Recover the amino acids of this structure.
């Protein structure tokens, strides 16, 4: 039987929290309570608005796996359709996976793929949309991440040279600050 040591660090002291809030601004540390412990952000006073976020990921497949996925000839089935469904399901369950994420009523989740023959890669774009008081960045990032993991899982029997890379937020709109990542 294996034992596991769990390392914990003490919560921040009140004066450390006050110094941090003074240094970077009170609203900049909303995930920390007055005692320095992690807490869910209270969004009840925020204005509801349409919020959209897009994230991406890249899975480098290698020539053999790329050809099989491109031609829909994988022994495990339709890789891209399964990855699309996995990404959508993941977005809908983000609040179960990321402890401090709010449960959102998603109005739409879209997962799309572009095949890049030059790099033997599949590029994944995931977007999430809601009307609410908090953003959908984590849902879009979760969809892209799980879709990429699904592609990996369905192709690992062909090659071990798979690589998931460049998981990132591409854009977000509708909140306090819009974001459009560098191309």
């Amino acid at each position: 039987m294996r034992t596991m040591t769990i390392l914990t660090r003490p919560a921040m002291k009140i004066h450390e929290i006050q110094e941090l809030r003074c240094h970077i601004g009170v609203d900049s540390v909303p995930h920390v309570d007055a005692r320095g412990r992690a807490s869910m952000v209270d969004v009840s006073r925020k204005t509801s608005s349409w919020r959209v976020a897009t994230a991406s990921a890249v899975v480098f497949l290698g020539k053999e796996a790329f050809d099989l996925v491109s031609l829909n000839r994988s022994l495990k089935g339709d890789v891209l359709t399964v990855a699309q469904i996995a990404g959508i399901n993941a977005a809908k369950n983000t609040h179960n996976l990321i402890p401090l994420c709010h449960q959102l009523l998603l109005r739409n989740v879209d997962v799309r793929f572009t095949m890049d023959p030059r790099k033997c890669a599949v590029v994944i774009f995931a977007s999430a949309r809601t009307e609410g008081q908090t953003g959908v960045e984590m849902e879009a990032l979760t969809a892209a991440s799980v879709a990429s993991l699904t592609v990996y899982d369905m192709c690992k029997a062909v090659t071990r040279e798979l690589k998931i890379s460049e998981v990132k937020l591409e854009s977000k709109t509708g909140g306090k600050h819009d974001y459009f990542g560098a191309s």
The longest strand covers residues 49-60. The radius of gyration is 20 Å. DSSP finds five helices and five strands in the chain.
